[in-house]
Design a protein that fits this description.
Mean pLDDT: 77
Radius of gyration: 18 Å
Shape: globular
Helix content: over 70%
Number of strands: 0
Distance between the termini: 42 Å
Amino acid sequence: MTEYLVIGVGFSFAAAVQPGPLQAFLLSTTAAHGWKRTLPAAFSPLLSDGPIAVVVLLLLRQVPVGFARVVQTGGGVLLLYLAALAFLEWRRQEGGGRGEPASAPRTLLQAAGINVLNPNPYLGWSLVLGPLFLKGWRAAPVNAIALLVAFYGTMVASLAAIIIVFGTVRSLGPRVVRVLLLLSAMTLVALGVYQLGAGLGLLAG
């Protein structure tokens, strides 16, 4: 069981701290609305990964090759939409306005949507977690359960820490907030263009 705990914690921590669509969205939302309203979004992998895990485990060897690319293309479109919202929030704050705060449930659902349209969970479950889960379950179900607890416990804790740390920086003043919001919006644009271009290019190829 120790092996599964170690792999779960290590793989999850690496995935959480690596810059990606979900992390960019969390930073953008924290910059706009603060860490307290964004913190529930740290639980978004628990909401989005369940269906992904079930699909991958049932069809582990039958998932079409281009499936992840279609998802990646859709994720790029969604990231560009969220970038536009971040830019609008940045413009509102230029005149001293704060805009309407995002509700915690809406932020959680948006973060879950980002993760559903992010190819990383599909690839992670297809190449790492899925095979290891099945191997552990066949040996002893407690191994597979330990893997899930270690992975998602570490993921939620790491994302929450990122949100809180970034939110602390946000409290330095309105100018810092606007700079962080602009940087977050630009990051979302860059990630959206990259995912859209990569998805379309590989589908065309």
